[in-house]
Amino acid sequence: MSATVPIIDARRVRRGFARAAAGYDAVAVLQREVATRMLERLDYVKIQPGTVIDLGCGTGASLVALGEHYPRARILGLDISEAMLRVACRQRSHLRWMLPFLRGPKQASLLAADAQALPLKTGMAGFVWSNLMLHWLSNPLAGLREIHRTLEVGGLLIFSAFGPDTLKELRASFSDGYEHTLSFVDMHDYGDMLVECGFSDPVMDAERLTLTYPSLDTLFGELRQSGSTCATAGSRRGLMGRQAWQAVREAYEKQRVEERLPATFEVVYGHAWKAEPRKITDGRAVIRFDRKPGSGSA
């Protein structure tokens, strides 16, 4: 990945989510399902963080669940899209009216921020949660480094992201040489990034979920309504001609099964801990000498 020529245009990402914000929750079925599966994984992790960060919180769907899971923690929701956060803020106000017990530490704070340059103090969080956000970054490694910096020693990161097989049917239906989906990172590459950032004991796994649609127009409509447009530097900027679109439709139709068109989503899951640093800020290595039991000065 290049730092000077980003693969993903962050401005197009923000515009896409700004247009989608009002209707996002109506089509975010997959996002909620993945969040539910991530929450189930937390049942096996025993932590009591003082601060929990939902990085890429969108309209705030996971904020209440995280508050319920960690009732004593301060919950902080961050997203690059101010429009999505405005929806989250309105929903939070509605929830407080509907559920009066949502106050104190369960009341989440919201902040617009770029995950690759977080405006947060070093070591301030005990737990970072990120659901289907990392693949929107032009440099996921920079985002993971920022997460590592923000976590306290012993803090936990758990995340999900789309993997390379996501929308493979759609990608295969185009033959014009342009990119029509994001360039998704492989599970093993995410694992390597975690190690490079200094995380310890990274655990990675993936699963493939298939959604089906009655038509290609329905799939495209849902992708647009959820903000999932192609924001890569190599995507086509102009409109396709009628014949080109017809060729795409015919290619996708060949994949129809039982009157439905399939769309694969590969979901990558990862979690890792922030370990004690092996180097200090000037780059020198830290070597620890543990005193043996019974030893001491003469």
Description:
This protein has a domain at 10-165 and 182-209 and 264-274: Rossmann fold (3-Layer(aba) Sandwich). Helix content is 35%, strand content 21%. The protein has ten helices and seven strands. It has helices spanning 10-20, 24-27, 29-42, 63-69, 82-98, 140-150, 168-173, 187-197, 216-225, 242-253, and strands spanning 51-55, 74-79, 109-112, 125-131, 151-162, 199-213, 261-274. Helix 4 (63-69) links the parallel strand 1 and strand 2 (74-79).
Write the layout of secondary structure elements.
Blueprint: H1 10-20, H2 24-27, H3 29-42, E1 51-55, H4 63-69, E2 74-79, H5 82-98, E3 109-112, E4 125-131, H6 140-150, E5 151-162, H7 168-173, H8 187-197, E6 199-213, H9 216-225, H10 242-253, E7 261-274
Parallel strand pairs: 1-2, 1-4, 2-3, 4-5
Antiparallel strand pairs: 5-7, 6-7
What structural keywords apply?
single chain; 298 residues; alpha/beta; Rossmann fold; seven-stranded mixed sheet; 10 helices; 21% strand; disordered N terminus
